[in-house]
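Schema walk-through. Below, the input block comes first and the output block second. Nothing else is stored per chain. Lengths vary across the set, and this one has 182 residues.
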Amino acid sequence: MARLLRALPRLLLREAPRGAVRGRAGDCGPGAGAGRGDAGSPAKHEPSLTKSEWQKKLTAEQFYVTREKGTEPPFSGSYLDNEEAGMYHCVCCDSPLFSSEKKYCSGTGWPSFSEAHGTSGSDESHTGILRRLDTSLGSTRTEVVCKQCEAHLGHVFPDGPAPTGQRFCINSVALKFKPKKQ
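--- output ---
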């Protein structure tokens, strides 16, 4: 029984929790449908690294935010005021996540986006993100994680601009920006 309880956290990280908030059809969690030809699944899945391998690959702040579900201080992120055209990728696995075309100033202190890259209407099955229920602070929020490597990116809130009404509040340290090629 003790062995099962110790293994439980690792098992829960491999699949979206039962109460996960997900995109529409075809989006069934990290690696879901891998090898079954689901159109919404990423082409590759970042191999699961050990804690020490992630610590070697990432800075201390990147590790804290992406692997331990931390949050960078508001108004401290390097991409908060970035207005360059390009794509924001996952700092852990390089998966494309958000386009600069959907970035806006929310005044909250973190880079904000109205939708994830690859969204079609309300269908997020072709994006690089997953939504998960987060009750860690005693309130219900929706966590945003990378579909490919399960890195914690931030949260999404229903107070964004039209037409989506969404505010993806994303930690700069969870992102790697790639400018658009001229």
